[in-house]
Design brief:
This protein is of the alpha/beta class. It is built from ten helices and ten strands. It is rod-shaped and about 100 Å long.
Length: 298
């Protein structure tokens, strides 16, 4: 068997301490152990290595040629172990690490923006990857551990995942500034029954379409909804020029865009939840969710 496999970390620490102090006794005092323990362990190590590391004399010890060569390796090994321990400890304390977060809400304002801002203040060394997408895509990534957590609408239970409701946002209609409904401070669904709507082909377009159909079908009217292959900014521009109305959540309403206004839909509240895999043990993510719960309970 390779003798190096029998050498323990403490043996290396004893060896380095004895080198630095030139004495087993002084090294023992520094390490708060008995001199005989150091002398015995270093002798064992010399036997394992097959070479003397120290010349011993009445005043103490000094390194042999073999000891000089071994010292550099021993210090390197101890430094690597210490560095590794610090890195792992930093990850465990969430001082460092990475969180992959699926989002389905605006970061312009609101709970999620406040959460990420607060987390970054205390854990600036943690890298955060934000990924846009719809809930089914995020949940699939959670199950495959490609995402650590997803913040999505609803409170549905997803197989193989844990769901925790954290916050709520009001639902707003986006209208052109010259639309007659802007005269009202808030809107009811009957006000919208005969309006045309536009939604994007990407997230959250499909969810907005389903939401409109669910709410307006109950009024005996199938909504007029047109799919648009554009991003958020161009979607708002289309609303501004009168191509149709759309819906958004409260967090996005701080974004001011020329030619549009926001009006809340009466008594419409969207729940947002955190979804994660019980098999994901990312400590940085655990700290994030702990902070989220604390903020949600204020």
């Amino acid at each position: 068997m390779n003798s190096a496999r029998k050498i323990e970390i403490r043996h290396l620490r004893y060896f380095v301490a004895a080198t630095e102090h030139g004495s087993f006794r002084k090294a023992a005092d520094t390490l708060s152990i008995q001199e005989s323990a150091i002398s015995r362990r270093i002798r064992d190590m010399e036997d394992l290595l097959g070479a003397s590391l120290f010349q011993r004399y009445s005043g103490g010890v000094f390194l042999t040629l073999a000891g000089q060569r071994f010292l550099r390796r021993a210090r390197t090994a101890l430094q690597q172990i210490d560095d590794g321990s610090k890195e792992v400890g930093a990850i465990g304390r969430s001082d460092e690490g990475r969180i992959r977060i699926g989002i389905f809400s605006s970061l312009a304002s609101g709970f999620l923006a406040d959460l990420l801002r607060a987390y970054d203040r205390d854990h600036a060394g943690v890298l955060i990857d934000l990924i846009d997408g719809n809930p089914p895509e995020h949940v699939a990534a959670i199950r495959q551990l490609r995402l650590d957590v997803a913040f999505i609408t609803g409170t549905s239970e997803w197989s193989g995942c844990e769901t925790e409701n954290l916050w709520f946002e009001r639902v707003f209609v986006v209208l052109p500034v010259d639309h007659p409904l802007t005269a009202k401070s808030r809107l009811d669904w009957p006000d919208l029954a005969h309006e045309s709507f536009i939604v994007s082909d990407g997230a959250p377009g499909q969810e907005i379409r389903d939401y409109l159909v669910q709410r307006l079908a109950g009024l005996g009217h199938h909504p007029d909804i047109h799919l648009q292959y554009v991003g958020r900014d161009n979607m708002l521009a289309l609303v501004a020029i009168g191509r149709g109305l759309t819906l958004t959540s409260e967090a996005t309403t701080v974004v001011r865009f020329p030619g549009i206004v926001y009006r809340p839909v009466a008594n419409e509240i969207l729940p947002f939840s955190a979804v994660r895999s019980p098999g994901n043990d990312n400590p940085a993510c655990r700290r994030l969710l702990s902070l989220a719960r604390s903020m949600a309970n204020r």
